[in-house]
Amino acid sequence: MDRLVNDPARYLDHAATSWPKPPAVRDAVLRFMDDVGVSAARGDGARCAAAAAEVDFARRGIASMCGVPTERVAFCSGATEALNLALRAVLRPGDRVVTTAFEHNSLVRPLLALQRERGLSVDVVPPTPDGDLDPAAVAERVQGAPTRLLAVSHASNVTGATFDVAAMCRHAREHGAMTLVDACQTAGHVPIAVGADLLVASCHKGLQAPPGLGFLACAPGVLLVPQKQGGTGSSRARAEHPTEWPQAFEAGTPNTLALFGLAAALRHHGKRPHRGDVANARLRAFERAATGLPGVRFLPAPARRRLAVTAFTHARYDAAELGAIFAGAGFHARTGHLCAPWLLRHFAAEAGVVRISLGHAECDDALPELLALLRELSAN
Amino acid sequence: MSTPDRYSRQRRFTGIGPDGQRRLQNATALVVGCGALGTHAIDALARAGVGRLVVVDRDVVELSNLQRQSLFREADAEAGTPKAIAVAERIREVNREVHVDAHVAQCSAAWLAGLGVRPDVVLDGADNFATRYLINDWCRNVRLPWVYAGAVAGEAAAMVVRSDGPCLRCVWPETEQPADAATCETRGILTAAIQAVSGFQVAEALKLMVGAPTTAGVFTCDVWRGVYQVVGIATEPAPDCPVCARGERPALDRQSVGAVTLCGRDAVQVEPPPGRLLDLGRFATRLRDVAADVVVTPHLVRFRADGARFSVFPGGRALVFGVQDPLRAQALYDRWIGS
């Protein structure tokens, strides 16, 4: 376990997971371990009540963030489980799905598995040359043939480009399609109440909860069938799985540890609004300075409402080589395919990219140092 | 006994005798690594009638192995047979009374933990110090003796590590490892050096199995200069040894990440063994004669060897391109970059 990056300013992989978490999150996790330990609704007494109160607080917070009634938020192990649930519950044999080249493997892989299993037709909207997702292009695909589902990312996990998914959802709904939005990159950074039928996010990135927690927020009136059954702590006398939200979708022992962390993170965010603009300005300055360096190529993204994420390739270095050199200087950047094979292929970056992503951490700006290193590498 | 005459010469040797022979036939030896040292030891132990041999190696037979590694044939190299498997097949032909457990695996903390048999002795046939420190830690934990051996160019060294005496770290602390330890790939290796040291290693292992006193000190030889000696060492563990004095097991505890396959790539990232710092400049100088396409910059050294492309970074972290199997990448790393 040597050579761990312990300088938060050099941790540049917030798009993968945020670090460090707010001290209050750590304290909440410890409080659960030390004082509570049990699940909500699994017995009577003060411990269960304490657990129930925190889980309820977390659920209310997420619900208001997503613009859905509290009970329409189901927690699960992460966004991957939530996306699998949503896709499996919604798609029927022969259905048509419109999605985009920006999607993450957490959506792409279950979708392709279902395509084989249920004979779906999948229509993938490409990015514009400047790395945007054109709502008109999406609308055209949705209108082009009867569409069951529009599945779209709120933002690219590679470039940090955010998309006008509210307009896409509105249009899709008008044309009878259901909408699924992946808000993993945006939750905790920008508003995510975009009017989707199904909204999915993980809680360990911008929301700063511990790993192992995600959610599915479902608009009222949207009918969803649970994809797994089991103990829920409610309706224990009944043999059949409950049908009420959210219990129907939360079979099994919940990750109360992470839920305590999420509740604490939401309280923390309530007190200290996110200064995304600071991180953004730092990263954009880095981009501007690095753009002219020989060999450096940034993947394109529109400037509008961009997250503090950027990705580049270098003509003379493999992305993994750059990652190792940066790691040698104490930086934790991310290299590889970033689980976005479609996008990397589209921008001819099949050999992988280097991604720099900033988050909430209020820390010194280490990017000038990274820039100097990149300048040196590009020169010799 | 089905073959009464088989061990007659060995039984007649007073150091072994009928009792010793019986002990050997009931004994189990673990041989870590089936390279030059491992195959010579395994051949000798099987012929001596050691009842059970547990052998472990992660690599496959290659043509360049045949110069010094016994037991293997050209057909094994052509087929790319895993070394452990080839060893087991050959030993069946040499002595069918010997039971061979062949493991195609890296000798890791997890592998040792799941071994399932308790050997009487462990023989070191590893090609790197990271594995030796691991054997050292594990043998201390389970109170087993082991016999270290190593060779490069015309030189070799070996030593018995008893569970009550000084350990490998007492003699060679990690910090005193040479910063750019030579490997057989860069400095070459003479089979005679292997055979000289293997004789010492096997004899000491036999003594441990029959209960005879072992040689104290470190055996060293330089077969080209014709120098053979046993250098005395302290009889007590070093007072500052983390393993003996402080009860730590650094290699067992650190055994987690060594090599990881990169996301979506035909490439593996290999971390250097803990505590080792590679001098990139000196490393590049050594490489020039033996590897292809060597490129040196202040930030990395690139070269090609064994059909793979390597990028090595200051300190010793490396990327091995053209390989997906972490075990294979680790083996290539140990071979070309050393450990």
Task: Tell me the layout of helices and strands.
The complex is a heterodimer of chains A (380) and B (339).
Chain A: H1 23-36, H2 46-66, E1 73-76, H3 79-90, E2 96-100, H4 105-118, E3 121-125, H5 135-144, E4 149-153, H6 165-174, E5 178-182, E6 198-202, E7 214-218, H7 256-271, H8 276-291, E8 296-298, E9 309-314, H9 319-328, E10 334-336, H10 341-346, E11 353-357, H11 367-379
Parallel strand pairs in A: 2-3, 2-4, 4-5, 5-6
Antiparallel strand pairs in A: 1-7, 6-7, 8-9, 9-11, 10-11
Helix pairs in contact in A: 1-7, 2-7, 3-4, 5-6, 8-11
Chain B: H1 8-12, H2 17-25, E1 28-32, H3 36-48, E2 52-57, H4 74-79, H5 83-94, E3 99-104, H6 109-113, E4 121-124, H7 129-142, E5 146-152, E6 155-161, H8 168-171, H9 184-187, H10 191-210, E7 218-222, E8 227-231, H11 250-254, E9 259-261, E10 267-270, H12 280-287, E11 292-296, E12 301-305, E13 308-312, E14 318-321, H13 326-336
Parallel strand pairs in B: 1-2, 1-4, 2-3, 4-5
Antiparallel strand pairs in B: 5-6, 6-7, 7-8, 9-10, 10-14, 11-12, 12-13, 13-14
Helix pairs in contact in B: 3-10
Characterization of the model:
The complex is a heterodimer of chains A (380) and B (339). Chain A is α/β, with parallel strands linked by helices. Chain A folds into two domains: 8-22 and 274-379, Aspartate Aminotransferase, domain 1 (Alpha-Beta Complex), CATH 3.90.1150.10; 23-271, Type I PLP-dependent aspartate aminotransferase-like (Major domain) (Aspartate Aminotransferase, domain 2), CATH 3.40.640. Helices cover 37% and strands 13% of the residues of chain A. Chain A contains eleven helices and eleven strands. Chain A has helices spanning 23-36, 46-66, 79-90, 105-118, 135-144, 165-174, 256-271, 276-291, 319-328, 341-346, 367-379; strands at residues 73-76, 96-100, 121-125, 149-153, 178-182, 198-202, 214-218, 296-298, 309-314, 334-336, 353-357. In chain A, helix 6 links the parallel strand 4 and strand 5. The longest helix of chain A is centred in the first third of the chain and has 21 residues, at 46-66. Chain A is globular. The model of chain A has no long low-confidence stretch (mean pLDDT 93). With 339 residues, chain B is an alpha/beta fold. Chain B folds into two domains: 8-252, NAD(P)-binding Rossmann-like Domain (Rossmann fold); 257-336, TATA-Binding Protein (2-Layer Sandwich), CATH 3.30.310. Chain B contains 13 helices and 14 strands. In chain B, the strands form two sheets. Chain B has an eight-stranded mixed sheet, sandwiched between helices. A six-stranded antiparallel sheet of chain B has the order 9-10-14-13-12-11, covered by helices on one side. In chain B, a hairpin with a 5-residue loop joins strand 9 and strand 10. Chain B is globular, with a radius of gyration of 20 Å. The mean pLDDT of chain B is 90. At the A-B interface, helix 9 of A face loops of B.
